[in-house]
Design brief:
By secondary structure, this protein is α/β, with parallel strands linked by helices. It is built from three helices and eight strands. The chain has two domains: 57 residues, 2-Layer Sandwich (Signal recognition particle alu RNA binding heterodimer, srp9/1); 48 residues, no CATH class.
């Protein structure tokens, strides 16, 4: 059997704040907390379910003292499901995201943004009907 992708870890200064931001973005809930860490997800994983089939990974925000120094080598892409891409960008800006430029150029059909701690992510095309 292969390994399972169970969580994506994000180093940050404020795990609670960043977890709250991403819960709003993704409609996730906090599923675990510990000293210096907060885990969010769309489900509460159990060993049995993870072993039985691939399940959506959780996001784990872990406190680190150092600042992010360079462009992310890994980032999230999100697609709005109930509104236009432009409306989702507006919603995310109100939540504390900001538009950013990582050299993507002017001819693109997605928006590069950064979360409140500067981690890049992309808002892709809408999946709304």
């Amino acid at each position: 059997m292969a390994s399972r992708f169970t969580e994506l870890v994000v180093d940050c200064h404020d795990p609670e704040g960043l977890a709250a931001f991403w819960c709003e973005v993704l409609g996730f809930e906090v599923i675990d907390r510990g000293e210096g860490k907060v885990e969010i997800g769309s489900w509460v994983p159990t060993v049995e379910e993870v072993r039985a089939r691939q399940m959506p990974p959780t996001l784990l925000f872990v406190h680190v003292p150092e600042d992010r120094a360079v462009k992310n080598r890994l980032h999230l892409d999100v697609s709005p499901i109930d509104r236009s891409t432009e409306d989702e960008v507006t919603r995310l800006l109100a939540l504390g995201a900001r538009k950013t430029d990582v050299g993507q150029g002017p001819d693109r059909n997605w928006q590069v943004m950064a979360d409140p701690e500067g981690n890049e992510f992309c808002v892709l095309r809408t999946l709304a009907p």
